[in-house]
Write a structure and sequence with these properties.
260 residues, binds zinc ion, disordered C terminus, 11 strands
């Protein structure tokens, strides 16, 4: 519902219209978390500590005008339908590999959805998103791509996706319904690249951010989501991912067999 507040302008298109209550992480991604009473956690990089955020669906801000909100919702709806169909459930790695290949119906829609997530985390004012500060140049480029529905090349803000799995006591293999606030990791000054990592509904998204020249060096990297809709998804044992184990312990009391 649009707010009555006349300003500030829409963060995406600059229109001075009433702003909508925009979710930063889309609502549908919390469906499974709510069903299992999972909590929303964030990692505070300065204090090196995890903090609970009990209200899972309050991650919203008055960010977008109605037109821009609807633009984002079109992409979200397509992706929500894939989730509802179980497209990302019960995935198994290909023989001898730690990954599998998915064929998404439409590169543009899925990539624009991913770009909208990245940009929203950057644009959000809530301090829980403070680790994502992309700077004015990336802000302008991402807004241009989003406003013109241009998904860009696979290497532009390319996304690496992996799905940690957890072997449960009953023998089932499951994707834990966890969300984690985005964090930025640096490759070091000589590489000039940053990796923005976030976890949404148990899916780990890693965006590669850098100057156009730096990002272009990832051209042809098959692990990035491709124009053909081909997506290589890493299928990993959650217990081999320390940051994920920590999250599991906090959310569900799962014991760490590695005794950290
Ligand atoms: Zn707008």
């Amino acid at each position: 519902m649009p707010s009555d507040h006349p300003n500030p302008p829409c963060r995406l298109c600059g229109a001075t219209e009433p702003l909508c209550r925009s979710h930063i992480f889309p609502r549908f991604t919390f469906k499974r978390m709510k069903a299992r009473d999972g909590h929303f956690y964030r990692f505070d990089g300065q204090r090196r500590a995890w903090e609970s955020r009990r209200r899972q669906d309050d991650c919203f801000e008055y960010l977008l005008c109605k037109g821009c909100e609807q633009r984002f919702q079109r992409w979200e709806s397509s992706i929500a339908r894939l989730f509802a169909r179980g497209f990302f459930d019960n995935l198994e790695p290909s023989a001898g590999k730690k990954s599998t290949i998915l064929q998404l119906p439409d590169y543009a829609t899925a990539k624009l959805y991913l770009l909208s997530l990245l940009w929203r985390c950057h644009a959000a004012k809530d301090p829980i998103f403070r680790q994502v500060e992309l700077g004015a140049r990336h802000d302008a480029r991402l807004r241009q791509m989003l406003l013109s529905s241009d998904p860009g090349e696979p290497w532009e803000y390319g996304c690496l996706i992996s799905i940690p799995h957890l072997q449960l006591d009953d023998g089932k293999v499951d994707r834990p319904p966890i969300a984690m606030m985005p964090e930025t990791m640096h490759f070091g000054a000589e590489h000039g690249l940053r990796l923005v990592r976030m976890v949404i509904d148990g899916i780990v998204l890693c965006f590669v951010i850098g100057s156009p020249d730096r990002m272009r060096q990832w051209r042809g990297v098959p692990a990035l989501f491709q124009r053909s809709g081909r997506l290589i998804v890493g299928i990993e044992d959650a217990m081999e991912m320390p940051f994920f184990i920590k999250q599991l312990q906090l959310s569900f009391g799962v014991q760490n067999p590695m005794h950290e």
